Amino acid sequence: MGRSIEKIGLQAVNVALVMGILAGCSGTKEAAKPAPADDEALKKYEAGFRPSDYDPEPGGKAKHPGAGDAPDTLTGEPSASSSMELVSGFRVQLIATTSIDEANAKKVEAEGIFPGEWIYVGYDPPAYKVRAGNFQSRIEADRFAKLASSRGFQDAWPVPERVYKQPPPPPRPPTAPPEEQK
Fold first, then answer.
1. Mean predicted confidence (pLDDT) in 22-36
2. 107 with 93: CB under 8 angstroms?
3. Which of 10, 68, 133, 178 sits in a 20 to 30 Å window from 42, CA-based?
4. Cβ atoms < 10 Å from Cβ of 15
């Protein structure tokens, strides 16, 4: 008999607990409906809202002032213009490192070795990744990866990524000015 009383007591506690949870989940209709003044303000805001103002530009910056306060994740991006279209494609990852100084040094090295390709440095915590190119097919990316591997980037491999369909030519690395004649 002692066990049946315990079972009944435990069942009563469980029922009370479930009822308490259900009662806490229910809300009132008044709380769910916004006040008329809030409803008008919301309609006015929604009428003037343009989601495209908050979409990032191809260069990584948001159009909306204040929304792009975070630094770019890629350095070396082509300047954004209306003709720059992003498509699915590939880049070749040349190196991944936790040192930003090493990543920037490898970027400069890659720009010297591959003057006709865009070289990017991206940050994907905890690694800085140096990637090259805007390849629209895997075959092009594989060819470049083999070339990069033969020129000192042994770990080069193609990575699926959004790339520029028709990027402008990359900027040339600055050349040292000729020394003055004495």
1. 61
2. no
3. 68
4. 10
